[in-house]
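User: I've been trying to design a sequence by hand for this structure and keep getting stuck. Would you show me what you'd pick, starting by listing the structure so we're on the same page?

Assistant: Good idea, let's start from the same input. This is the structure you sent:
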């Protein structure tokens, strides 16, 4: 069979094959221009990312600068913490010794034994509870905080007696309610100590200005509300809340892993 005879008999089939081949070649060209381009871009991107990963993320100069910034920040945090933190006195609580119920009871007895007679001589009426709970605490964390609160109470009441303030009522030491929670009190724990002072307005102002000055550290005022006593020209009432802050911020340098 010569080619003419083959063509006559199979031209339909050959035409279909030829058309399919042309369509395949066109499709291949389209794929090469689209998917092929995407593949090439992906390969280029992968090589670029591998090059970045193999290069150091930070230079030694970058690390030194970050370390200097970290040191400066740590110093600022420690300075601010020291300025806010309550500075307790060793006769109330020694941080190097355990805080026991016996130490607590001894401190309470000493303060009452000193201040109540002094207040009587100065004709100053004091809240005899000094803000302490009726049932003595037993947990060490509560003992520590009540002793810090008593430390502050003693400073304010001593100053009130010196200035001849007429009355100091409703003394309350309130521990931070978060103290016993699962998450704890956080970075700054706040024990609040409340007073209700009544007397000569200048004497009350001097108490607020000078309380704690003899210890070298001013007390932290949280709230204050003053009003004149009805029917008087020089007497006032001051409801005052002080803070006994505990700052717990970890500034330790853990270095490089």
């Amino acid at each position: 069979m010569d080619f003419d005879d083959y063509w006559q008999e199979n031209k339909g089939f050959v035409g279909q094959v030829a058309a399919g081949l042309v369509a395949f070649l066109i499709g291949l060209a389209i794929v090469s221009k689209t998917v092929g381009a995407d593949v090439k871009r992906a390969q280029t991107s992968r090589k670029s990312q591998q090059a970045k990963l193999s290069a150091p993320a930070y230079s030694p100069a970058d690390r030194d600068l970050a370390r200097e910034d970290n040191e400066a920040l740590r110093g600022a945090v420690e300075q601010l913490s020291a300025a806010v933190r309550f500075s307790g006195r060793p006769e109330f609580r020694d941080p190097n010794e355990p805080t026991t119920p016996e130490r607590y009871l001894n401190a309470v007895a000493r303060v009452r034994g000193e201040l109540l007679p002094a207040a009587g001589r100065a004709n100053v009426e004091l809240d005899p509870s000094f803000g302490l709970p009726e049932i003595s605490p037993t947990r060490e964390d509560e003992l520590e905080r009540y002793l810090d609160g008593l430390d502050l109470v003693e400073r304010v009441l001593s100053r009130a007696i010196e200035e001849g303030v007429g009355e100091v009522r409703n003394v309350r030491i309130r521990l931070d309610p978060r103290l016993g929670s699962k998450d704890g009190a956080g970075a700054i724990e706040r024990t609040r100590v409340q007073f209700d002072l009544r007397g000569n307005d200048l004497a009350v102002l001097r108490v607020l200005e000078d309380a704690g000055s003899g210890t070298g550290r001013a007390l932290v005022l949280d709230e204050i509300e003053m009003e004149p006593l009805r029917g008087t020209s020089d007497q006032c009432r001051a409801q005052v809340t002080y803070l006994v802050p505990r700052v717990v911020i970890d500034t330790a340098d853990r270095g490089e892993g």
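That's my pick for every position. To get oriented when you compare it with your attempt: The longest helix spans residues 3-33. The first strand starts at residue 125 and ends at 126.
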